[in-house]
Design a protein that fits this description.
Helix content: 40-55%
Shape: elongated
CATH superfamily of the largest domain: Response regulator
Domain HTH lacI-type: 8-63
GO molecular function, one term: DNA-binding transcription factor activity
Strand order of the largest sheet: 2-1-3-4-5-11
Number of strands: 12
CATH topology of the largest domain: Rossmann fold
Strand content: 15-25%
Radius of gyration: 26 Å
InterPro entries: HTH_LacI, LacI/GalR-like_sensor, Lambda_DNA-bd_dom_sf, Peripla_BP_I
Number of helices: 12
CATH class of the largest domain: Alpha Beta
Pfam family, one: LacI
Order of helices and strands: HHHHEHHEEHEEHEHEHEHEEHEE
Mean pLDDT: 87
Protein name: DNA-binding LacI/PurR family transcriptional regulator
Structural class: alpha/beta
Length: 325
């Protein structure tokens, strides 16, 4: 009884077509001129044998590349729940896919960092140390960092956190608000910059507490603060999801938003939990993803690439109004 048949190879195609292995390879790659008749003979032989083409991973490895870019996003469950993360991830994947590169999602650990990756995108804003970074740097693997930390040798893609938060604070000040509180993210570059921007206008803003960009976490955080009778007339949150949680929890306690309490967020994402549009700072999520992908492609090709700082825009919605008397 014969054993399992092996998959056809490029050498089999070359032999069947009656050409050299190098000519058969060129016929598939299209990198150098091959006559139309020769190319047709090679492709016909491949079809006859059921050969679909060279293995792209093997080809890339021979060229010193794997064709894979890693992206560290922290806990995967959290990343896929954050509406600010998905548009950026989608834009990154679209650009890289057009260039024939795959995207490997990486969690908080460093177990994937030893893989033969062409580059790594670091997108865990709440974590500013990563054991894998030193190893990646030692292996000269290009690293593109999204919104911090700014590690030596990495390319830094950021948005105007400080300016956006300051514009939002000035909007509230113009509405007559003087007593303002804030819900922050965990300590990170975006958290520090957004809080610093708020304090440009409200240096004494009270901190309700910190939580991740999660609806339930924000509700649980702000609930006890609301129960004690907030002295503030406005709450500035560092994400729209947090702001949506504050609106829902305030309403559950009979407070009118914005009549009794103005609430603002940051990011500019959809908030389907609400029947009003949030006042927020809109960041260009898709453009940020494209900027990240372009930086990755430049770093892989060895092209010098500068850090990127993207603008943001204040969008006034129905969640903020004049300060109550």
């Amino acid at each position: 009884m014969s054993g399992p048949s092996r998959a056809p190879t490029m050498a089999d195609v070359a032999a069947t077509a009656g050409v050299s292995l190098s000519t058969a390879s060129l016929a598939f790659s299209g990198n150098k001129p091959v006559s139309a008749a020769t190319r047709e003979r090679v492709l016909s032989a491949a079809a006859q044998l059921g050969y679909t083409g060279p293995n792209p991973l093997a080809r890339n490895l021979r060229q010193g590349r794997s064709g894979v870019v890693g992206i560290a996003v922290g806990p995967l469950s959290t990343a896929f729940r954050d509406p600010a993360a998905l548009p950026m991830l989608d834009a990154v994947s679209q650009v890289l896919e057009r260039e024939g590169l795959g995207l490997l999602l990486m969690g908080e650990g460093d177990e994937h960092a030893a893989l033969p990756l062409d580059a790594v995108i670091y997108d865990i804003c709440g974590r500013e140390t990563w054991d894998a970074y030193a190893d990646l740097a030692a292996r000269d693997v290009p690293v593109v960092v999204v919104e911090g930390p700014s590690w030596p040798g990495s390319t830094f893609i950021d948005i105007e956190h400080h300016a956006g938060a300051t514009a939002l604070a000035r909007h509230l000040h113009d509405l007559g608000h003087r007593r303002v509180a804030t819900v922050t993210l965990a300590p990170s570059h975006p958290q520090r910059e957004r809080e610093a921007g708020l304090r440009e206008v409200f240096p004494d803003a009270a901190v309700v507490g910190a939580c991740e960009s999660d609806l339930t976490a924000a509700q649980e955080l702000v609930g006890p603060w609301l129960d004690h009778g907030p002295g503030a007339t406005a709450v500035v949150c560092q994400s729209d999801v947090q702001a949506a949680g504050v609106v829902l929890e305030a309403r559950r306690r009979g407070l009118d938003v914005p009549g009794d309490l103005s609430v603002a967020g940051f990011d500019g994402v959809a908030t389907p939990w609400l029947d009003l549009e949030l006042t927020t700072v809109v960041q260009p999520l898709a453009e940020k993803g494209r900027a990240v992908a372009r930086a990755v492609l430049d770093r892989i090709s060895g092209t010098d690439t500068a850090d990127v700082l993207l603008p943001v825009e204040l969008r006034v919605g129905g969640s903020t109004g004049p300060a109550r008397s």
